Amino acid sequence: MNPSQWKWRYSKLAGILVAGLVLVSAAIAAWDYQQRARPPQIDFSESRHDFGNVAEGIKVSHVFRILNKGGQALLIKEAKSTCDCTTANLKLNSVPGGGSVNLEVIMDTTMKQGRINKELLVISNDPAHPQSKIFVAANVDPHAGMSSGSRGKIFVGKCATCHVQQGIGKTGEDLYIADCAMCHGFRADGGEAPSLVRFNYDHKLVAAYIREVIAHGSKSHLSMPGFLKQVGGPLTNDQIDSLVAYLHWRTNMNR
Ligand code: HEC
Ligand code: HEC
User: Fold this and answer.
1) Whole-angstrom distance, CA of residue 255 vs CA of residue 201
2) Is 196 in the pocket of ligand 2 (CB under 6 A)?
3) CA-CA distance, 247 to 172, in Å (whole number)?
4) Which pLDDT does position 29 carry in this prediction?
5) Which of 61, 196, 248, 249 could connect to 188 by a Cys-Cys bridge, CB 3.0–4.6 Å?
6) Three-state SS for 233?
């Protein structure tokens, strides 16, 4: 072969290579174009979050990630809840194809009690899912985060709504059910706190001891504060007498 033949062969080879490259890059460009032309597609890092046990009167927050699995920009028009107690904060409302953005959901437990479930509606330009829902839940526990120091304070603040208010103006069994049953049981035979029907109330000293603990509280246990008005409690002397009489009667009934 002479040099000009070599040259001819090489240029032919180079031509094939260039044509190949052009084809491949055209294919990539077409694929890329197709990817980017795909409509926006909304997705979430998770669809629900449970805050577990939380105290009443606080704010808890959780960050969901909104993903755009499509090509075109995802526009989030609105993220809203049906309740004032749950709000959503979005830094950016436009997410490029393949990108993501944080959505912070804040739940306020003020005046809530027990299990709460809330949903958030996310409105976007995803043609397949113009409205998507995410969910948050919590158990609002009045005792969550209660320290041993706060145990004696059942008569003040929010604690009073359950531990004092229902007993106002009541005596005897009604008062017992309102103020004592939650700890000592509805039949006074024990619960969170010891049974009160295991004593011999006929015995004057025993009845006096019971009255003393109700009025001035337990010396050893903060959960049993003194219920007498004079020491910061909600009850009068007459109300406390009515409780001792009720416990005496209940003990005989339970026998
Ligand atoms: C929503 C009503 C409610 C509120 C508000 C509430 N409690 Fe209670 N509490 C109860 C009930 C019912 C029980 C009986 C046991 C139970 O269900 O946990 C109880 C039991 C207790 C006990 C005895 C059981 C234990 O876990 O040691 C203590 C102490 C107590 N509460 C303190 C408080 C204090 C302090 C507050 C305010 C920070 C408070 N409670 C607020 C309803 C309430
Ligand atoms: C927040 C929970 C709680 C409430 C409400 C509560 N108690 Fe108690 N009580 C206790 C605990 C805990 C003890 C045990 C104290 C100890 O071990 O020293 C106790 C002890 C007592 C005792 C002494 C029992 C013993 O074994 O020596 C009496 C009597 C008593 N409570 C009566 C009452 C009455 C009546 C009421 C309603 C006015 C009431 N308690 C409300 C938690 C409570």
Assistant:
1) 13
2) yes
3) 8
4) 84
5) 196
6) coil
SS3 231: helix
Q: What is the pLDDT, as a whole number, of residue 148?
A: 65
Q: Which numbered ligand comes closest to the C-alpha of 171?
A: 2
Ligand 1 atom index nearest CA of 153: 35
Ligand index nearest the alpha carbon of residue 208: 2
Query: What is the number of the ligand 2 atom nearest to the C-alpha of 180?
Result: 37
DSSP structure class, residue 113? -
Q: What is the pTM of this model?
A: 0.70
Cα–Cα dist 240/79, whole Å: 54
Task: Say how many Å lie between the CA of residue 223 and the centre of ligand 1.
Answer: 9
Integer Cα distance of 174 and 42 in angstroms: 56
- If phi > 0 it is left, if psi is from -120 to 50 it is alpha, else beta; for residue 165 that is alpha
Q: Does any ligand 2 atom lie closer than 6 A to the CB of residue 197?
A: no
Q: Beta strand 131-140 with 114-124: parallel, antiparallel or unpaired?
A: antiparallel
Q: Nearest 10 degrees: CA dihedral of 237, 238, 239, 240?
A: 50
pLDDT at residue 111, as a whole number = 80
pLDDT of residue 18: 87
Kindly identify the ligand whose nearest atom is closest to the C-alpha of 143. 1
Low-confidence ranges of the chain (pLDDT < 70): 1, 147-152
Tokens representing residue 95 in the block: 């997410």
Distance from residue 221's CA to the centre of ligand 1 (Å): 15
Tokens of 220: 């050893």
